[in-house]
Amino acid sequence: xxxxxLRILKYNTLPYRELRRNKTLEPxxxxxxxxxxxxxxxESPWAAVTNIRELIAPTGPALAALQPSQxxxxxxxxxxxxDSPHLSDLKRAVVRLEQSRSEADFKLVVDALPHRQASSxxxxxxxxxxxxxxxxxxxxxxxxxxxxxxxxxxxGPELLRR
Length: 162
Description:
The protein contains seven helices and two strands; from the N terminus they run αβαβααααα. Helix 3 packs antiparallel against helix 4. By secondary structure, the chain is mainly alpha-helical. Helix 2 links the parallel strand 1 and strand 2. It has two domains: 79 residues, no CATH class; 81 residues, no CATH class. It has a two-stranded parallel sheet.
């Protein structure tokens, strides 16, 4: 587990290196904030540390202040309720996908994604009308087109015209 946790440090610094190489840093040459997330789907609940510093042997206060510290959020997909109120719609959908036990369960989650996207970006009425228009549509390419349209459209009426 130590190797996997150390990989988090690497994954968090790789985008920073890329930004620096491409000279696309924040004003003043600063690095942007990052949200390190571990998506975990093991059989047993997450029990490992959530801060890399916890992997470093204790030392005196002067040296302790100089040790790396990287906290990260753990999304323990198999051990959280898909209807948990603290999950965003996207996280909820990911958890439901992970917890799907049949093709029908999986399809229900995938079919609901355009509605979730539309209700998040526009309003409930637009989302409801979109859901009605997509009733029975299961073609992945068509659903992908709808997802792209949700992202690109500025208003609900514009989306529904497409």
